[in-house]
């Protein structure tokens, strides 16, 4: 029932060409069956968690609590959860996961209030060379676009489409900087100075544009889509 998802976030980004960057590795504990169902339901319009909430008729905060093991759906009818609605939830969960509500949220979990209230993340800070981070971005792009099997080609194309969709929140200049900075869309990884020369601006201005783009991409509704695309 438990699932660990891992992600990275940049703590400091004051980079020179040869500098390193501080990274925090975050491990998040998830409800495995709900997390898998969310990933299967994701679309270009909706992230997995939002899509699952819509499928089950559950609000964002409530479905988030279930997935992140911070709460459980009711077992008996309440004012908000009528018997009919609860029966539909059970049917939908069975269809999506192959398990009953009781199997997904057993008494041992429901009665463990301390566990449900406890933080579900663990962070580990480490240092990564700027070039290594850029190479990771390049390798990720290649992994998405260079599959050898036809079935994998379709999956990669879908993931690439999700990335392109998420990038629509950026301006043209911001997309250009991100693509050149991390070697996307066939371009090579470039330094701030090289990008500045290509775009006719200073390296410092390129870094400002990158920071603006990164801030936009970290917004929850965009970050979730990107995380699912490279999962």
List keywords for this structure.
3-stranded antiparallel sheet, 231 residues, single chain, elongated, alpha+beta
List the helices and strands and how they pair.
Elements: E1 2-10, E2 20-31, H1 32-41, H2 48-56, H3 60-67, H4 83-97, H5 101-104, H6 107-110, H7 113-117, E3 121-129, H8 130-145, H9 150-166, H10 172-181, H11 192-199, H12 203-217, H13 220-229
Antiparallel strand pairs: 1-2, 2-3
In short:
This protein has 13 helices and three strands. The protein has helices spanning 32-41, 48-56, 60-67, 83-97, 101-104, 107-110, 113-117, 130-145, 150-166, 172-181, 192-199, 203-217, 220-229, and strands spanning 2-10, 20-31, 121-129.
Order of strands across the biggest sheet?
1-2-3
Q: What is the CA-CA span between the terminal residues? A: 19 Å
Whole-number radius of gyration?
Answer: 21 Å
Q: How would you describe the oligomerization state of the chains in this entry?
A: single chain
The largest sheet is: 3 strands, antiparallel
Instruction: Choose one word for the global shape.
Output: elongated
Derived from helix and strand composition plus strand pairing, the structural class reads alpha+beta
What proportion of the residues form beta strands (DSSP E)?
5-15%
Helix amount: 55-70%
Q: What are the low-pLDDT stretches, counting only 5+ consecutive residues below 50?
A: 6-18, 147-153
């Amino acid at each position: 029932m438990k699932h660990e998802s891992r992600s990275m976030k940049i703590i400091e980004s004051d980079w020179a060409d040869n500098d390193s960057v501080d990274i925090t590795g975050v491990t998040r504990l998830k409800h495995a069956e709900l997390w898998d169902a969310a990933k299967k339901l994701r679309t270009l319009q909706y992230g997995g968690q939002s899509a699952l909430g819509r499928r089950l008729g559950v609000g964002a905060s409530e479905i988030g609590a279930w997935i992140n093991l911070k709460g459980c759906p009711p077992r008996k009818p309440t004012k908000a959860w009528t018997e009919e609605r609860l029966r539909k939830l059970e049917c939908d969960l069975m269809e999506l996961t192959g398990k009953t509500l009781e199997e997904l949220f057993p008494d041992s979990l429901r009665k463990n209030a301390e566990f449900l209230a406890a933080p579900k993340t663990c962070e580990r800070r480490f240092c990564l060379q700027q070039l290594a981070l850029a190479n990771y971005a390049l390798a990720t792009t290649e992994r998405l676009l260079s599959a050898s099997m036809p079935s994998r080609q379709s999956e990669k194309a879908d993931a690439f489409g999700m990335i392109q969709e998420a990038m629509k929140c950026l301006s043209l200049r911001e997309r250009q900087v991100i693509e050149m900075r991390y070697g996307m869309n066939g371009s090579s990884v470039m330094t701030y100075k090289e990008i500045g020369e290509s775009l006719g601006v200073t390296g410092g201005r390129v870094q400002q544009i990158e920071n603006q783009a990164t801030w936009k991409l970290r917004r929850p509704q965009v970050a979730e889509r990107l995380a699912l695309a490279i999962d």
